[in-house]
Amino acid sequence: MGTGVLVKTCLLGALALVCIGAAQADENPCEPSDISPIDYQQALCMSFFFYEAQRSGKLPENNRVSWRGDSALDDGSDVGHDLTGGYYDAGDLVKYGFPMSFTITMLAWGLIDFSDGYSKAGQTDYALEAIKWGTDYFIKCYTSTNEFWGQVGTGAIDHALWNRPENMTEERPSFKIDAENPGSELAAETAAALAASYILYKDTDADSADQMLAVAQELYEFADNFRGIYDDVITDAADSYHSWSGYGDELVWAGLWLYRATENETYLTRAKGHWDEFNFQYSAAFQFSWDDKTAGVYALFWLLEGSQTYLDHLNTYLDYLQNTAPYTPEGLVFLSSWGSNRHAANVAFLALWAAKQGVDTAQNSQWGQEQMDQLLGANSRYNMTFVVGFGDKYPERPHHRASSCPDPPEACNFGWAYTQPGPNPHVLYGGLVGGPDENGDYEDDRSNYEQNEVACDYNAAYSGALAALVELS
């Protein structure tokens, strides 16, 4: 394990820890580039270090996070399946399949359409590894036709505890969807993730790619033929990742990604059928997120089918964001109090993607860059970045169990690691924290999880947007 903390006093008894001094000593894994004034290449590099810090299971030898080790090696033992691997969702240690699959879809989309930015930043291989860490897990979770394991661990248990993932002893039950208990959002989003990933791997690793595509196709059929709200089945997910928008957007989304992967017109036809069935018309959907893919559907439909209808919807949505949506006083588009930075990064990605496709290029690229620059330090109120470890001033107390726990392991307990006022002992390089409220207020406080939680989906479209900015620079 790493040497990320200097504990200057003592352990009092078996459990109590009194710490009067802690220093962050982890090394920055990402060299600065010559980009100025904001180093998008370094930020992109750090984002994939963050994903390594979120890995669950048996870690590879090349894992760069010195303070992480193997963890949750018994996942799935309660149901007789190997469900090790994948990603811990956020600052907690649950593996939520629905946002995890959206994460992989968005990482893949960014690498597909901003590949030059990834190459220029030297991050292509890291991105591919991050994506495959997710797809390998999804394939493990698909244990039978119309059976998919969508969650390991529970928020009810996990959120009451605070410890390193390597030292977990709590129960981690596994939850599935199947034909009798379907979950269309989960199955369809995972199909989208695997289809998008297939595009990246088909020319370099045909065996893995073929497996991704085969599972994607079967999960799409499962999602469409056996319909149901996933968190009606995996009820523990409802408190954290309830499907507010329903599953219609995921069915369209998955059909479009399968069409992009295969060029099989059947998938495009079915996506159009879902569009009509669920009455997709323009509405000022305030998010593009793990829950609601509507704005992404506009973009993909126009890219793949070319109809002006879809482009009009996309343009109207971008116009809403740029001219009507609420903003913080500093100019960050504000779409939700929970993870405000994540929502800004998601729509910045859409704007930068549209700009690259020739849609109002000057306006969309400028607006998308301005939103990303807010996250990376170009904000007048705090003059800080919202990315851990990036820049001269950044959040030091992210709501994140592993990075908050010092060495030695026995020093980690809720009474110290969660509540101590100093910086986290380990630097969670690259983690995008939740962000400010609508008034622009932000507090670097570990216990303020709304503003300081990090999550895999926070960094997903954000990574693609960074690659877009590297291309532009």
Provide a quick synopsis of the model.
The chain is mainly α and 473 residues long. It is built from 19 helices and 6 strands. The strands form 2 sheets. Strands 3, 4, 5 and 6 form a 4-stranded antiparallel sheet that branches. A two-stranded antiparallel sheet has the order 1-2.
Q: What is the secondary structure topology, with strand pairs?
A:
Layout: E1 11-12, E2 16-17, H1 40-53, E3 95-96, H2 97-113, H3 115-121, H4 124-141, E4 142-144, E5 147-152, H5 155-158, E6 174-178, H6 184-201, H7 206-225, H8 230-233, H9 238-241, H10 248-262, H11 265-277, H12 294-305, H13 308-323, H14 340-356, H15 361-375, H16 401-404, H17 414-418, H18 449-452, H19 460-472
Antiparallel strand pairs: 1-2, 3-5, 4-5, 5-6
Helix pairs in contact: 1-3, 1-19, 2-3, 2-4, 2-6, 2-19, 3-19, 4-6, 6-7, 6-10, 7-10, 10-11, 10-12, 12-13, 14-15, 14-19
Kindly provide the name of the CATH class: Mainly Alpha
Share in β-strands: under 5%
Low-confidence stretches: 1-23
- Give me the CATH architecture, please: Alpha/alpha barrel
Radius of gyration: 21 Å
Helix content: 40-55%
Oligomer: single chain
- Count the beta strands: 6
Quick one: overall form? globular
Overall number of structural domains: 1
Would you tell me the structural class of the helices and strands? mainly alpha
Tally of helical runs: 19
Biggest β-sheet description? 4 strands, antiparallel
**How many angstroms does the end-to-end distance come to?**
37 Å
